[in-house]
User: What shape does this take?
Amino acid sequence: MQHLFDSPALFQAKAYILKESREELTKYLDVPAFEKGDLYYIQNLVAAIEAPSTGPEPSVQPSPTPSACPGNLNTDNIVNLGDLSIVLSHWGELTTMGNGIAPVNLADIAFILSHWGNCL
Assistant: This one.
């Protein structure tokens, strides 16, 4: 068991006191305390975005055009391995994919898998 405030407090300390890089902070970002959009996760996301980068700046790419089939990223009218490979090829980029929230992460894979085989 861990206190609810420990995780965001440690993340904020790494961001604002230790001034760790964006790349280091994003390793620990995808650990929300609640299923959807809790305040601590949003604060950690802002801290990571504001942190200095040690590498090249990520390029923000436009999202694929949405189709009538959720999770169908390559417009072949079925959610399959092709859509999963698109998500994996954009892993960590500051663009939106399956779940519509940047950066591309495990939530996008879960979204694709939850719609697997749909829209034939």
Q: What stands out?
A: Helices lie at 6-17, 22-26, 39-50, 81-89, 106-114. The chain has two domains: 6-50, 58-120.
